[in-house]
Description:
The structure holds two protein chains of two kinds. Chain A contains no helices and eleven strands. Chain A is mainly beta.
Amino acid sequence: ETGVTQSPTHLIKTRGQQVTLRCSSQSGHNTVSWYQQALGQGPQFIFQYYREEENGRGNFPPRFSGLQFPNYSSELNVNALELDDSALYLCASSVTSGRTDTQYFGPGTRLTVL
Amino acid sequence: AQSVTQLGSHVSVSEGALVLLRCNYSSSVPPYLFWYVQYPNQGLQLLLKYTSAATLVKGINGFEAEFKKSETSFHLTKPSAHMSDAAEYFCAVSDPGGSYIPTFGRGTSLIVHP
């Protein structure tokens, strides 16, 4: 148990729809990162939020957006869903945004786009 | 740009045998390196990390890894496999001088036979 929770566990959407995934960080952590893990692949970094501001972004289009709230919970929003968005979405929290800080991962949300 | 290559998508060992999971990295600067484990239906858990201190890094659950600059490798080992070690293992690299955007390998599935 890492203390990081994600909801929902599973989600099925159709192409073109919008989805919001939620993450509750470990207590005291002010940084959250989001990753996309396609089947049979390693996680790919989407973006990181530090103290409610985006602090780094991977190679994902603007239809992937996020929010971090004052209590350090966060959301990942994906607009105009595409079939290739089907994946496991992981969030990870850390005490700070430091490069060597240990990230604590949640169990993920499995998104299926039909 | 950084990258990691994990040799072998599947590694099969007998219980009690040596575990060796291979990771080679590509980086223009001395990197930070990480090994993560992912159990079924769970998020990633950090096993160990190299951040330019000792080249032999000891992690949790009896795992260790050695940073070898000359071979650009960071292989993960464990002297004696347990059934509970069966999982997916990911090697990751990040650039100490840049923003924190880790690059993960595609993963190696460790299978442990009784």
